[in-house]
Q: What sequence folds into this?
């Protein structure tokens, strides 16, 4: 038992202070306002206050912190992307992730489990080779492995997949990890709070005031605040915020659903992803299987569940893991994925001065939390796009400079 | 086994004539047929049925309902079986799931003594140094989880069905049964489901000693069972509510998807525990659990009981105990006073001491540590225990009857707006969505007569909603007294007063979590994990909410509930998956391919012959021989997987003009043209061939993988543009075969009277003709670079066509070839494959398909983007390349990178050894500076070594396309 837990036994009162202050009202002005108290918004606040000495910041959250996609994703972290831009960006994120628990002094259960993307067709195998080669070029641990390698990492898996789509190989990414998603928001929130950032939960943004092309303030249901800088980090709600400032984006919103099982004794070490079967699965530290599949096939601004999703995912899971037949599914949920045409994010400055975007996170936002926070903090503080996000700007759609991450981002979040 | 068994009770669910043996923790136990695992064990004197999740405390029967984590067990391959409700069978060998060694002694029980070190969220506060986390994680993963999966468990395929009804009633208690009956009597078809083995609900066990009530309920059940318009399904769980009254019903061996016109939710309430120190000791149970033990299974919950109550239900439960000869020592009532009625009188007459305005401050454990031995009772002073006046009342069981929480999960899922009713101290429906109704206790109606009325009301309202009856107002009287106590929770400095029994959460955990800032209900849930156990908070969320309301000085309504999501009850994956649906498509020629020894590969959902096996030859040789057959004689390939579409109408040509990049309005009837499709960003998404059969009729193909999406997209565009044309997807209805090679014409000529001369049927023409008597569309096109025909016939003619062609070609050694040979053949011709030689960003300029794009057309999808892109130098272009003539060693593979100055300068998209040219040839994307013909570049292979290649002109083979247009001289004599 670690010594750190001693204090809980020895002290009479619970020896922990509040992680985040609750505040009665908003100040009349801030140096920056961050809309969205999810992982990304809080991370940006954290790095702004830690690295750029900006702490007169309000994070405004309509619900409670981490209530959006931060708390709804399936927590997979990896950097084996397809484009050089993507690879460099997510690699930096993984590096940040690895130190986050210690930085926060909060255990995020960052658990390096290894990540297999299964190939059931030769065309999938081809794409994986492409990813592996690009990854290796940038020094990322990524390789195409044989069915035998997969089997030894996950002995009970049925690589024949019921004869429908036998596994021919996989892209293996040893640094692939999972983490306790809610705690990420808490860690960043606490760190930002300690440095003076104000987190206002249950506060809704109603409008953004723009004068001669510059942001001047934000209207909320708790009053107006003036600010020269606004960072929008609201994922599936981005189109609504963009409407407030009259910007257009090619974002389109699809629900993404997931399932979780009852806990069972751990048997699944790695993270397994199959694009052909639309399955990704990992086992948490509590012993639950967390499972996801592809996006709902239509645009919808709703987090409702559909039964056919549960049916389809369970059927595909049993192709790979027939022995889970008796395992029960406890819960089903959904998040809103803000998809982009090229499956890369939309980040950085916009045509409106002082209005910064952190969006287009589709199904790949959680793993980018630290690096998105860090690069957006730089962008907001210096009013200059961080080098790692140059290629992700909103203007790329006008200029036809798309990033082309579809092959690596669309499956295996 | 009769240690705790009562004398037979009318209506009990067990069959005392039939004994059943099973084992628990290796020991033999005997029960009666109909017993659940828990009832059989309790009857046999077992007290410890499981160990708790975190502290490994002994746990017995608590809720005796379908959700308690502490009575989950392992039975062979079945994990997490719910012992409270699962009937015993003689082949059961059960073990507790969360115990190290025998559940009676559990080596991990020491964790209970260390609980002070393990406060709420302790795992966030430690174990996280980078070096040590992997070690601690292993320890934690060893302790975690409930049951065990057995990897040898077979794939179980459960039947599924669809079902329909006018009114679905969920819950067959008194209100649900009444609702079903009144709706059916109004003339609608009703399905009523209940998760229990038998209908009747609490109407058959919350009796207050009155057997007449059980008889009333039984009569109601009988009326429902006999009604011709009602179907009653027991042991069936309504697993969730989905949009448009879509409710999956989960039975033991099937899943039924019910589409109801309207839904009546009569799911009742969950009884809620009181919170006091050691409220988890075996023997401390909910009053309703004790009543079910008695009336369903004839099992004595305890011998000597203290009843903790805050409502009249507790008094009735006490009478139920007394009626079975169980001693009730005391009734402890949290309320300041109670209403005197027949039950309180009965208790007083029996000498039961009643303690109003008192609480149980603590329960004591017996020396054997397997159950409760006493209740420590204190009086209350404005809700706080007066610990100075504690009295110890010895007992071996405590009943908790302090309140209820609405089982409103399905109502929440249906987006019902709920409100907190202060009078009944419960969330009740406020605004119900159209077609959803609620009745009975979930609606805040508890009194037995009123439940009946409320059910009738809901049934008639549902019938009226369906237009089957006029709405009759039925008055339902409100409750006389609150069934639930507003705060049945007592603090204790030593803790162990459990709020969540699944997750081992104590009262102080909530105060501490709130102190750390997790003071709204959703954050509280995530930090403490309250309600995240197997029961999903069915017996913990309400108390958690009350505690948080008190901490934050809010009302329960202001605190609100967490989002209720499916599933209401956990559903096995076998039931969700059903028989599985992995569509597999086979062309009509599949049997022929099998007979010819095809090795199949996946192409989307299709199986296609990769190549045909030949005795004594390896894969490479087989493919080479197929390539040579096409180049030197005649080959035949099944291309039935291509998307096949037809468009007709006055605007058909205009439609194609807008969708594809070429020009189609000017096409002559009887000709074909290459068709390239872009998305709005100018990226290549598909290609095919368009054939004009008449002025207003085109037949065209798409790629195999693109067939479905192209059809969807065209349909979408057609809807949007409203042109005068219609599109039909004929992919499955038609089949197509390519006949290619220098003998192709000779072979085809044997089967048709149609004139096949170059003049009558030139290159790129399309003709409708009869082949072997079958109506066919033949196109003089070819992917592989030889004289060839793509012949399309109705799918049911495919076999006859194939056989005819094979017979006709026999004299010319016709050989079927597969996808691999075709890939080599097309590569020799330098043809790209969309999806392999293009990616998600490839434009026609990059892929050297500029010739197929008529940028000056008025409009086509992607045109505007392309006009902008066309002004820029492409980042890379597709070129042909060759390896040196006598290259030995491991050739590069597709997707290996071209490296220039240590930077990525491109990638290989296709590579193969060309049997015709006797060297490796390929296609690659490469940076502009390196793309000159004759330029050398370096490809990096998987092991890091470099292979040199040279940019080459394409086509590699027959650059003038002479062979497709002219009959080549026959290279070999053919023996006729």
A:
């Amino acid at each position: 038992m670690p010594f750190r837990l001693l204090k809980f036994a020895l002290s009479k009162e619970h020896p922990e202070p509040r992680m985040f202050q609750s505040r009665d009202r908003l100040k009349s002005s801030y140096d920056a306002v961050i809309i969205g108290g999810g992982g990304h918004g809080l991370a940006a606040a954290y790095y702004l206050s830690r690295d750029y000495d900006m702490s007169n910041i309000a994070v405004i959250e309509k619900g409670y912190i981490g209530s959006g996609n931060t708390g709804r994703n399936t927590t997979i972290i990896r950097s084996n992307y397809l484009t050089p831009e993507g690879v460099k960006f997510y690699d930096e994120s993984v590096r940040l992730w690895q130190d986050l628990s210690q930085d926060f002094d909060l255990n995020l259960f960052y658990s390096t489990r290894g990540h297999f993307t299964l190939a059931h067709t030769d065309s999938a195998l081809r794409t994986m080779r492409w990813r592996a080669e690009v990854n290796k070029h940038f020094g990322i641990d990524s390789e195409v492995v044989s069915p035998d390698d997969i089997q030894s990492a996950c002995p009970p898996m049925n690589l024949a997949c019921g004869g429908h789509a036998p596994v021919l190989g996989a892209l293996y990414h040893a640094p692939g990890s999972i983490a306790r998603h809610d705690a990420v928001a808490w860690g960043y929130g606490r760190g930002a709070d300690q440095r003076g950032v104000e987190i206002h939960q249950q506060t809704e943004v109603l409008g953004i005031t723009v004068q001669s092309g510059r942001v001047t303030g934000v209207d909320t249901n708790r009053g107006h605040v003036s600010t020269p800088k606004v960072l929008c980090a609201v994922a599936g709600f981005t189109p609504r915020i963009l409407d407030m400032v009259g910007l257009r984006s090619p974002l389109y919103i699809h629900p993404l659903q997931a399932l979780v099982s009852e806990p069972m004794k751990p048997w699944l070490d790695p993270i397994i992803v199959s694009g052909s079967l639309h399955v990704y699965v990992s086992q948490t530290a509590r012993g639950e299987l967390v499972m996801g599949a592809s996006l709902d096939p239509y645009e919808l601004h709703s987090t409702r569940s559909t039964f056919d999703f549960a049916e389809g995912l369970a059927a595909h899971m049993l192709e790979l893991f027939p022995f889970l037949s008796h395992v029960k599914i406890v819960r089903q949920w959904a998040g809103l994925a803000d998809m982009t045409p090229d499956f890369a994010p939309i980040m950085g400055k916009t045509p409106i001065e002082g209005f910064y975007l952190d969006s287009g996170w589709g199904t790949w936002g959680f793993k980018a939390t630290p690096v998105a926070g860090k690069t957006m903090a730089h962008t907001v503080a210096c009013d200059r796009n961080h080098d790692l996000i140059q290629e992700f700007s909103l203007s790329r759609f006008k200029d036809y400079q798309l990033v082309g991450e579809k092959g690596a981002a669309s499956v295996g979040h | 086994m009769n240690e705790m068994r009562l004398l037979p009770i009318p209506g009990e669910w067990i069959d005392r004539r039939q004994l059943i043996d099973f084992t628990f923790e290796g020991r033999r136990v005997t029960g009666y047929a109909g017993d659940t695992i828990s009832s059989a064990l309790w009857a046999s004197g077992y007290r410890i049925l499981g160990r708790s999740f975190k502290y490994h405390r002994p746990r017995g029967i608590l809720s005796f309902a379908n959700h308690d984590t502490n009575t989950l067990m392992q039975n062979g391959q079945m994990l997490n079986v719910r012992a409270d409700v699962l009937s015993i069978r003689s082949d059961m060998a059960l073990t507790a799931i969360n115990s190290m060694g025998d559940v009676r002694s559990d080596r991990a029980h020491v964790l209970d003594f260390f609980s002070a070190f393990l406060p709420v969220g302790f795992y966030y506060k430690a174990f996280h140094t980078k070096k040590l986390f992997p070690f601690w994680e292993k320890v934690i993963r060893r302790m975690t989880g409930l049951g065990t999966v057995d990897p040898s468990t077979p794939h179980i395929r459960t039947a599924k069905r669809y079902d329909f009804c006018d009114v679905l009633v969920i819950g067959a208690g008194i209100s649900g049964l009444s609702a079903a009956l009144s709706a059916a009597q109004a003339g609608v078809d009703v399905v009523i489901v209940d998760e229990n083995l038998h209908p009747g609900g609490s109407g058959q066990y919350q009796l207050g000693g009155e057997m007449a009530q059980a008889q009333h309920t039984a009569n109601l059940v009988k009326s429902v069972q006999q009604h011709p318009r009602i179907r009653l399904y027991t042991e069936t769980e309504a697993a969730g509510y989905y949009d448009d009254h879509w409710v999956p019903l989960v039975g033991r061996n099937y899943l039924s998807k019910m589409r109801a016109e309207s839904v009546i939710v009569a799911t009742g309430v969950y009884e809620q525990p009181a919170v006091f120190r050691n409220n988890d000791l075996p023997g401390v149970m909910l009053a309703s659990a004790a009543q079910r033990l008695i009336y369903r299974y004839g099992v004595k919950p305890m011998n000597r009981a203290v009843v903790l109550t805050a409502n009249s239900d507790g008094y009735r439960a006490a009478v139920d105990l007394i009626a079975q000869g169980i001693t009730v020592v005391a009734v402890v009532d949290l309320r300041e006073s109670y209403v005197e009625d027949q039950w309180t009188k009965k208790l007083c007459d029996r000498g039961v001491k009643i303690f109003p305005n008192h609480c149980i401050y603590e329960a004591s454990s017996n020396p054997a540590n397997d159950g409760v031995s006493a209740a420590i009772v204190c009086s209350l002073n404005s809700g706080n225990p007066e610990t100075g006046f504690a009295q110890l009342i010895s007992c071996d069981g405590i009943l908790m009857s302090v309140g209820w929480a609405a089982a409103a999960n399905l109502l929440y899922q249906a987006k019902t707006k709920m409100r907190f009713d202060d009078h009944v101290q419960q969330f009740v429906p406020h605004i119900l969505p159209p077609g959803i109704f609620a009745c009975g206790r979930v609606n805040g109606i508890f009194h037995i007569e009123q439940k009946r009325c409320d059910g009738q009301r809901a049934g008639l309202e549902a019938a009226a909603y369906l237009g089957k009856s006029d709405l009759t107002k039925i008055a339902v009287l409100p409750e006389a007294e609150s069934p639930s106590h507003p705060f049945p929770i007592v603090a204790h400095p030593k803790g162990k007063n459990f709020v969540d029994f699944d997750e081992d959460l104590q009262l102080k955990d909530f105060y501490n979590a709130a102190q750390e800032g997790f003071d709204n209900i959703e954050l509280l849930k995530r930090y403490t994990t309250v309600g995240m156990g197997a029961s999903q908070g069915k017996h913990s969320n309400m108390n958690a909410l009350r505690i948080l309301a008190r901490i934050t000085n809010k009302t329960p309504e202001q605190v609100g509930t967490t989002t209720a999501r499916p599933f209401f009850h956990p559903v096995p994956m076998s039931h969700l998956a059903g028989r599985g649906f992995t569509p597999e498509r086979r062309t009509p020629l599949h049997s022929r391919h099998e007979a010819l020894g095809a090795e199949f590969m996946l192409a989307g959902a299709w199986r296609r012959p990769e190549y045909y096996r030949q005795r004594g030859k390896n894969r490479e040789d087989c493919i080479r021989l197929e390539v040579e057959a096409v180049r030197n004689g005649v080959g035949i390939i099944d291309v039935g997987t291509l998307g096949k579409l037809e468009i007709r109408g006055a605007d058909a040509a205009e439609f194609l003009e807008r969708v594809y990049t070429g020009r189609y309005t000017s096409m002559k009837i009887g000709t074909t043209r290459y068709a390239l499709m872009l998305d709005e960003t100018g990226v290549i998404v598909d290609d095919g061939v368009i054939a004009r059969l008449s002025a207003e009729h085109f037949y065209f193909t798409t790629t195999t993988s693109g067939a479905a999406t192209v059809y969807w997209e065209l349909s979408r565009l057609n809807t949007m543009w409203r042109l005068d044309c219609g599109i039909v997807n004929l992919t499955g209805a038609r089949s197509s075969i390519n006949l290619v090679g220098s003998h192709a014409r000779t072979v085809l000529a044997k089967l048709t009277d149609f004139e096949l001369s170059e003049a009558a049927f030139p290159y790129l023409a399309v003709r409708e003709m009869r082949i072997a008597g079958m109506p066919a569309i033949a196109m003089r096109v070819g992917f592989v670079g030889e004289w060839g025909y793509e012949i399309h016939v109705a799918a049911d003619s495919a076999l006859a066509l194939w056989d005819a062609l094979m017979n006709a070609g026999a004299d010319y050694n016709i050989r079927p070839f597969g996808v691999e040979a075709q890939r080599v053949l097309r590569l020799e011709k330098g043809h790209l494959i969309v999806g392999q030689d293009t990616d998600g960003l490839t434009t026609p300029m990059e892929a050297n398909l500029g010739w197929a794009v008529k940028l000056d057309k008025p409009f086509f999808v992607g045109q505007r983007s392309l006009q902008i892109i066309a002004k820029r130098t492409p980042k890379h272009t597709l070129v042909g390349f060759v390896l040196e003539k006598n290259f030995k060693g491991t050739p590069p593979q597709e997707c290996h990178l071209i490296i220039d100055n240590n930077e990525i300068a491109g990638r290989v998209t296709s590579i193969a050894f060309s049997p015709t040219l006797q060297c490796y040839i390929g296609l690659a994307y490469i940076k502009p500076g390196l793309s000159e013909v004759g330029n050398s570049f370096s490809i990096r292979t998987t092991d890091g070594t470099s292979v040199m290649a040279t940019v080459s002109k394409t086509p590699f083979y027959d650059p003038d396309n002479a062979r497709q247009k002219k009959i080549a001289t026959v290279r070999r004599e053919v023996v006729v």
About this structure: Confidence is low (pLDDT under 50) at residues 969-976 of chain B. Chain B is about 25% helix and 30% strand.
